[in-house]
Write a structure and sequence with these properties.
The chain is built from four helices and seven strands, in the order ββααββαβαββ. It is α+β, with helices and mostly antiparallel strands and about 170 residues long. A five-stranded mixed β-sheet has the order 4-3-5-6-7, with helices on both faces. A two-stranded antiparallel sheet has the order 1-2. Helix 3 packs across helix 4. The N terminus is likely disordered.
Length: about 170
């Protein structure tokens, strides 16, 4: 994977309302990256590898200064139905409601899901609360025949996959 590096003397520019070009802020750059990944991975796109899933989720969740809990809703062939940022929290936590995740899963007619959230601290290690929440969500979704394929924690450029660690 190629690395993007920016130096301060070669700024990216954005056009303001008056048509002037000004240096882009970090938030503007991240928002543009999220738009590009949305165009690249549209409804029906197949996640053919764990690496592809992690790259997609890094692009979507890296850079937030607060926790965001998101769900990839997938069909039976693990193609993207929808990416939804369901819950927003503080710098070190987010309240996640299993009932709402089940409702969204049924609304999208999802066969499988992949959970993800970010750790603004930069440490991708799953906490005991992360593990307990994943188990609760897995049990709730099993009642409506929705499979949990993974839970990916994004911490900057690094990720931790529950499936790869044998936690699912």
């Amino acid at each position: 994977m190629s690395q993007l590096s920016l130096s301060l003397d070669a700024s990216l520019l954005v056009r303001d309302d008056q048509g002037r070009y000004l240096p882009a802020t970090t938030d503007q750059i991240l928002a543009a990256a999220r738009q590009v990944i949305d165009q690249k991975m549209q409804r029906g796109a197949e996640f053919s590898s764990p690496a592809m899933v992690k790259e997609y989720l890094r692009t979507k969740l890296a850079g937030f200064e607060h926790e965001v809990f998101a769900v990839l809703f997938l069909d039976t062939r693990h193609r993207l139905i929808e990416y939804v940022e369901m819950f927003r929290g503080t710098i070190d936590g987010a309240s996640v409601h299993p009932r709402e995740v089940v409702k969204e899963s049924l609304q999208f007619n999802a066969a499988a899901v992949i959970f993800s959230h970010n750790h603004p601290s930069g440490n991708p290690e799953p906490s005991a609360a992360d593990k307990a929440l994943t188990q609760r969500l897995r049990e709730a979704l099993a009642l409506v025949d929705v499979r949990v394929l993974d839970h990916v924690i994004v911490a900057g450029e690094t990720t931790a996959s529950f499936a790869e660690r044998g936690l699912l």
